[in-house]
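Quick check before the chapter quiz. The format below is the same one you will see on the exam, so make sure you can read both the input and the output lines.
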Amino acid sequence: MLYRIGTLEGIAKVSFLFPIEITEKLTECITILDDAYGTDRDYLHIGGYALLAQTREDFSAIQDITKNPYEWIIQLHDYLCILYLLGDDFSVVLFLPTAVAPDNIKKHLQGEKL
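Here is the expected output.
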């Protein structure tokens, strides 16, 4: 299942589904967005959000986001944390199991030139 998280309250609803490293990084990302754009923002339109994917189907469902270049990738546990910048002030942080990541992302992690 694909989860869209834009507030700290949203993290509490999914934290039991993911490793602690993921929820800690997710909390860090959402806190940065809250500090920059406010806790009462409409996160779908202002300031961005995080997506937590679990399957290849989840990844396929967000192709409109993942077709954009990513800014950075961090490996956490068995997941990847990938920042996509979709505009000047709009970002999406994707948490994706390494096992379902596409080859171009895996090659980036291995240091291969794309």
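If your answer matched, good. The beta strands are 3-5, 49-52, 70-76, 79-85, 91-97.
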